[in-house]
Amino acid sequence: MRTESTTSEDPSASLNTEIAPRSPWRVTAVEVLPGFRLRVAFADGLTGTVDLSRLVRSPKAGVFTALADPSLFAQAKLDYGAVTWPGDLDLAPDAMHSAIQQHGEWSL
Protein backbone atom coordinates (compact mmCIF):
# COMPACT_ATOMS: atom_id res chain seq x y z
CA MET A 1 0.00 0.00 0.00
CA ARG A 2 1.37 3.37 -0.95
CA THR A 3 1.18 6.22 1.48
CA GLU A 4 1.39 9.88 0.61
CA SER A 5 3.19 12.51 2.60
CA THR A 6 1.18 15.43 3.85
CA THR A 7 4.11 17.58 4.90
CA SER A 8 4.29 21.13 3.69
CA GLU A 9 8.01 20.95 2.87
CA ASP A 10 9.21 22.06 -0.53
CA PRO A 11 9.61 18.77 -2.46
CA SER A 12 12.27 20.29 -4.73
CA ALA A 13 14.55 20.75 -1.72
CA SER A 14 15.22 17.01 -1.65
CA LEU A 15 16.29 16.97 -5.31
CA ASN A 16 19.70 18.39 -4.41
CA THR A 17 20.51 15.49 -2.12
CA GLU A 18 23.36 13.35 -3.39
CA ILE A 19 22.35 9.74 -3.96
CA ALA A 20 24.71 7.29 -2.31
CA PRO A 21 23.70 3.69 -3.15
CA ARG A 22 24.42 1.33 -0.30
CA SER A 23 24.01 -2.00 -2.06
CA PRO A 24 26.86 -4.41 -1.25
CA TRP A 25 27.24 -5.21 -4.94
CA ARG A 26 27.84 -1.57 -5.94
CA VAL A 27 31.21 -1.38 -7.71
CA THR A 28 33.49 1.16 -6.04
CA ALA A 29 36.64 0.71 -8.16
CA VAL A 30 37.54 -0.69 -11.56
CA GLU A 31 40.97 -1.23 -13.11
CA VAL A 32 41.49 -2.34 -16.70
CA LEU A 33 43.90 -5.29 -16.95
CA PRO A 34 45.57 -6.81 -20.02
CA GLY A 35 43.68 -9.44 -22.00
CA PHE A 36 40.19 -7.89 -21.77
CA ARG A 37 40.04 -8.33 -18.01
CA LEU A 38 39.02 -6.02 -15.17
CA ARG A 39 39.83 -5.88 -11.48
CA VAL A 40 36.82 -4.68 -9.50
CA ALA A 41 36.08 -3.80 -5.88
CA PHE A 42 32.64 -3.66 -4.30
CA ALA A 43 31.07 -1.62 -1.52
CA ASP A 44 31.19 -4.59 0.86
CA GLY A 45 34.96 -5.02 0.38
CA LEU A 46 34.79 -7.96 -2.03
CA THR A 47 37.35 -7.81 -4.86
CA GLY A 48 37.90 -9.98 -7.92
CA THR A 49 38.39 -10.13 -11.64
CA VAL A 50 36.07 -10.05 -14.61
CA ASP A 51 37.29 -11.87 -17.71
CA LEU A 52 35.61 -10.73 -20.92
CA SER A 53 38.22 -12.19 -23.30
CA ARG A 54 36.02 -15.02 -24.59
CA LEU A 55 32.88 -12.91 -24.78
CA VAL A 56 34.30 -10.08 -26.90
CA ARG A 57 35.55 -12.59 -29.49
CA SER A 58 32.43 -14.75 -29.48
CA PRO A 59 29.94 -14.78 -32.35
CA LYS A 60 27.27 -14.43 -29.65
CA ALA A 61 28.81 -11.27 -28.16
CA GLY A 62 26.12 -9.01 -29.57
CA VAL A 63 26.71 -5.40 -28.50
CA PHE A 64 29.80 -6.47 -26.53
CA THR A 65 31.63 -7.15 -29.82
CA ALA A 66 32.61 -3.47 -29.75
CA LEU A 67 34.72 -4.15 -26.65
CA ALA A 68 37.12 -6.25 -28.74
CA ASP A 69 38.67 -2.88 -29.64
CA PRO A 70 41.37 -2.49 -26.95
CA SER A 71 41.09 1.30 -26.99
CA LEU A 72 37.35 1.12 -26.27
CA PHE A 73 37.79 -1.59 -23.63
CA ALA A 74 40.36 0.62 -21.88
CA GLN A 75 37.67 3.30 -21.41
CA ALA A 76 35.89 1.29 -18.70
CA LYS A 77 34.63 3.54 -15.92
CA LEU A 78 32.16 3.59 -13.08
CA ASP A 79 28.72 5.06 -13.40
CA TYR A 80 26.35 4.81 -10.42
CA GLY A 81 28.09 1.69 -9.10
CA ALA A 82 28.27 -0.17 -12.43
CA VAL A 83 31.11 -0.70 -14.89
CA THR A 84 30.28 1.10 -18.13
CA TRP A 85 31.75 1.96 -21.52
CA PRO A 86 30.83 4.50 -24.19
CA GLY A 87 27.89 3.39 -26.31
CA ASP A 88 25.65 2.51 -23.36
CA LEU A 89 27.51 -0.72 -22.62
CA ASP A 90 27.52 -1.90 -19.02
CA LEU A 91 27.81 -4.96 -16.82
CA ALA A 92 25.26 -6.03 -14.23
CA PRO A 93 27.00 -5.37 -10.90
CA ASP A 94 24.78 -7.76 -8.93
CA ALA A 95 25.56 -10.70 -11.23
CA MET A 96 29.25 -9.74 -11.19
CA HIS A 97 29.27 -9.65 -7.38
CA SER A 98 27.54 -13.02 -7.08
CA ALA A 99 29.94 -14.78 -9.46
CA ILE A 100 33.03 -13.27 -7.84
CA GLN A 101 31.73 -14.14 -4.39
CA GLN A 102 31.33 -17.77 -5.47
CA HIS A 103 34.35 -18.23 -7.77
CA GLY A 104 36.69 -15.25 -7.27
CA GLU A 105 36.25 -14.38 -10.94
CA TRP A 106 33.41 -13.68 -13.35
CA SER A 107 34.19 -15.18 -16.74
CA LEU A 108 31.79 -14.35 -19.54
Q: How would you portray this structure in words?
A:
With 108 residues, the protein is an alpha+beta fold. It has a single domain (24-107), classed as NE0471-like N-terminal domain (NE0471 N-terminal domain-like, 2-Layer Sandwich). The protein is 19% helix and 28% strand. It is built from three helices and seven strands, in the order βββααβββαβ. It has helices at residues 53-57, 70-73, 93-103, and strands at 27-33, 37-42, 47-51, 77-79, 82-85, 89-90, 105-107. β5 (82-85) and β6 form a beta hairpin. The longest helix is centred in the C-terminal third of the chain and has 11 residues, at 93-103. The N and C termini lie far apart (40 Å).
Keywords:
single chain; NE0471 N-terminal domain-like; three-stranded antiparallel beta sheet; disordered N terminus
Percentage of residues in helical conformation = 10-25%
Cα radius of gyration in angstroms: 18 Å
The CATH C-level name is Alpha Beta
Strand content: 25-35%
Secondary structural class? alpha+beta
Strand segment count: 7
How many domain modules?
1
* Helical segment count: 3
In one word, what is the shape? globular
Mean pLDDT: 84
- pLDDT < 50 stretches: 1-7
Distance between the termini: 40 Å
- The CATH architecture can be named as 2-Layer Sandwich
| Pattern of helices and strands | EEEHHEEEHE
Question: What is the spatial order of strands in the main beta sheet?
Answer: 1-2-3-7
Secondary structure elements and their pairing?
Blueprint: E1 27-33, E2 37-42, E3 47-51, H1 53-57, H2 70-73, E4 77-79, E5 82-85, E6 89-90, H3 93-103, E7 105-107
Parallel strand pairs: 3-7
Antiparallel strand pairs: 1-2, 2-3, 4-5, 5-6
